[in-house]
From TrEMBL:
GO biological process, one term: fucose metabolic process
One Pfam family hit: RbsD_FucU
Catalytic activity of the protein: beta-D-ribopyranose = beta-D-ribofuranose; alpha-L-fucose = beta-L-fucose
Annotated protein name in UniProt: L-fucose mutarotase
Keyword Membrane found: no
Coiled coil regions, renumbered to chain: none
Membrane-spanning parts: none
GO molecular function: D-ribose pyranase activity; fucose binding; L-fucose mutarotase activity
UniProt keyword terms in alphabetical order: Isomerase
Length: 151
């Protein structure tokens, strides 16, 4: 156990978040997602797991350490619901609130179709799977830079 670090973040995930560079993508996916298969194609080639049944809690823990990229328009991407494009599932609405609060601003979130989301996950630096059972509890984030050293 380390002081000041969310206990949801285990050693593998801490390594992945620290090793990712500016612009690298971190795919946070739910329990329904084909995470193991797609993580094999990610940069790390392995799946990280975070032991919470709530994607918003997982996102909050990750954002406690990782800044979100401010230089690109698609720093946050979600999967557009199949058959209901443009709708915002409850898990995503929660994650958007967590993201905006953590960043202290309204962050643009880009919905993409299912297969584009799968492709982006394969290209991600790492894939992190929660135990979230609600559908579409997934978000891909681009890592930003710390513009000043934390106090």
């Amino acid at each position: 156990m380390l002081k000041g670090i969310d206990p949801l973040l285990d050693a593998d995930l801490l390594w992945a978040l620290a090793a990712a560079g500016h612009g690298d993508a971190v795919a946070l996916v739910d329990a329904n997602f084909p995470a193991e298969a797609l993580a094999r194609d990610s940069v790390t080639g392995r799946l990280c797991r975070i032991g919470t049944p709530d994607s918003a809690d997982a996102l909050r823990a990750i954002l406690s350490l990782m800044p979100v990229d401010t230089f690109v328009g698609d720093a946050a991407v979600t999967m557009d619901p199949v058959g209901a494009p443009g709708s915002i599932p409850p898990a995503v609405a929660e994650m958007r609130r967590v993201l905006d609060k953590a960043e202290g601003r309204a962050v643009a979130v880009t919905p993409v179709d299912r297969f584009a989301f799968y492709a982006a996950t394969r290209a991600a630096f790492c894939v992190v799977q929660t135990r979230e059972e609600r559908p579409y509890g997934c978000m891909i984030l681009r890592k930003g830079v710390l513009l000043s050293a934390p106090a």
